Amino acid sequence: MFKHMLWFLFAGPIAFIQFAVSSEAPCSAGARYPELLRGEIPLYPPIARSAHITGTVVIEVTVERGSVTGARLTSESNPYLANPSLANVKAWQFQPEDRTTFLVEYVYQIRGEETLLPENPRVELDLPCRVKVTASPFKPTETYGSTDSN
């Protein structure tokens, strides 16, 4: 098993996202996966994370000539997880080849100690068949407005 651990620095306040890329055998033995050329790193959808929504999204992806031509959910999933997952997979680009269809699994987890501020999630990629995003829970802060009685 071979893994890369990379850190990315985003503009603005210092923020890091950690992700791992695995070069293990594809998720499904015997399944044929095209070679992924480009894909965006998914994040934990903010609304789902704030609401502590977790779950798995399984998408059937069809690729023709290197582009995703179809993506559909294979089971019922929370829309706050499913819609961003579908948008992410539709942006992927593959090595041009014949039409192929395969499954991609997105796993969203919230684990660890609760923090006062949201921390960037850990993203594990076993592409193109599995994406796992793990975030720490955080306690949303309450904002109080002034209550003038005048």
Structural class: mainly beta
* Amino-to-carboxy terminus distance: 68 Å
Order of adjacent strands in the largest pleated sheet: 1-2-8-9-7-4-5
In DSSP terms, counting alpha (H) and pi (I) runs of 4 or more, how many helices? 2
Identify low-pLDDT runs.
1-26
Q: What gross morphology would you assign? A: elongated
**Rg, Å, rounded:** 18 Å
The quaternary organization reads as single chain
Q: How much strand?
A: 35-45%
Quick one: how many beta strands?
Answer: 9
State the share of residues found in helices, binned by percent: 10-25%
The largest β sheet comes out as:
7 strands, mixed
- Report mean pLDDT, rounded to a whole number: 80
Order of helices and strands: EEEHEEHEEEE
